[in-house]
Every structure is written in structure tokens, then in C-alpha cells.
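Notes to self after the Tuesday call (sharing in case useful).
The group wants a holo model before anyone commits to mutagenesis around the pocket. I volunteered. Ligand is glutathione. Logging inputs and output together so the record is complete.
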Amino acid sequence: MIDFYALTSPNVQKVYIMLEECGLPYTEHYVDVWKGDQFKPEFLKINPNNKIPAIVDRDGPGGEPYTVFESGAILMYLAEKTGKFMPKDIAQRYDVIQWLMIQLTGVGPMFGQLTHFKLFAPKGADSYGHDRYQSEVKRLYEVLEQRLGASPFLGGSEYSIADIATFPWTRNHDAQGVPFTDKPNLTRWFDAISARPAVKAALAKVAQIKSNRETATDDQKDQFFGRGKYARA
Ligand SMILES: N[C@@H](CCC(=O)N[C@@H](CS)C(=O)NCC(=O)O)C(=O)O
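Result:
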């Protein structure tokens, strides 16, 4: 059994998809980051970096409980545990890891910052941050489009944890200012992944989760974003 510390964000959706794809049993524990649950001492024992997702595998290495945080590490751990969605061949495996790293170091942070500047920047803030991330998000989508023109999936010929990591971040492509009208390869890839039964099951679960996102107070948002009285001097 896996304890899964979750809510609704794209990094969490990756883990829902992976658990459903692998058919692993799991128990959800919601950590409402909009209420500050990630700062509670009991959660900080699981992830000292106060972020979801995190898992505790009750049947970890040596039969002992094992905690994993960081979505990329969780996907790699579950791939290794199950032997799924990560090729055995070294070159093929590193093809997957490279595209996984592009998600972890590029797509996730840049798309996340764009969302922040689009939705949560103070009114009247200058547009420098927004414009910088918008341009970088468009560039990254061009890189993905080109890759998917040369390869069926991001990591190669097979669906892998590189796709599982990237797909949730692309679900809001219209809101991110990148309609797929001129992106046939991303469209093909996106539709194929959306149609997978495990992906549908995972997203149905996510859709039912209620968070404090719409009702968070200004203070709760400041705490989440580390600004206002929560900003480090
Ligand atoms: N690099 C991390 C990022 C995780 C992340 O940003 N999680 C957000 C989800 S909304 C979070 O928990 N934020 C709470 C906070 O930063 O206080 C991963 O890939 O797992």
C-alpha cells in the first residue's frame, strides 16, 4: 500500500496517473496547500521542502516503509519498483530521463511561473515577469512539438514516465496562450494520452478533489507564495 500526499496540481496529477497506470493500491491524504497544510510539522517530516506530491511506500526496499518526495523521483521510484514505463536498455532509458529532466527543470518551473504571473501577480505589477515566462513557455512547446514530430512519445517509441510527467502541464495549453491549432504532433500525443483508461481514471479522481484554491484568503495566498509578511528579507 502506498500513502499518497496529494491535491490537484499538475505535479500531483503525474503521480495519480502513474499509480493508476501501474495498478498500485494507494490511500490518498489531501494536503491543502491553499490552507497551509504543507507547513504542518507532521507533513514536514515527510517532505522537509513543504511540497506535494510525496509518497510513503509501506512496502519499500527491504520490506520497510520508504518515503519519496519530488514528483520526478516518485515517477522513477515507481517505474523501478514495477518495471513499467522506463526502458531497461541504457540508451533508451537515458532518452526517457533526458525528456523527464526537461519537464522537471523546464516545463514545470516555467509553466508554473507563467501561471503565477497570469493569475496571482499583484494588480498593476509590470509585465516583465509575465512576458519572460510566456516567451519561455512558447519556446518549450516548440521544442516538444519538434520532438514529437520525430518520435511517437517524448522518451522514444514507447509511452514512458517522460510523457506521464509532461502531459498534466499541457492540459491548460489554451490558458497558457498556446492553442494546439498549429501543433499537430502535440495534438496527436495529447489525444493519445487523454484516451488512456488509467489517465481518465486519474483525472476523474483529481476532478473530485475540493481545495481551498478559490476561497483562499489574501493571507493564505501570501503564505503559499512566500510574499508579504512571509517574504524572506
Ligand atoms: N519540484 C516539485 C514541485 C512540487 C510543487 O511545486 N508542489 C506545489 C503544488 S501546488 C506545492 O506543494 N506547493 C506548496 C508550497 O510551495 O508551499 C515536484 O516536482 O514535486
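Two things stood out.
The chain has a mean pLDDT of 97.
The beta strands are 2-6, 26-30, 54-57, 66-69.
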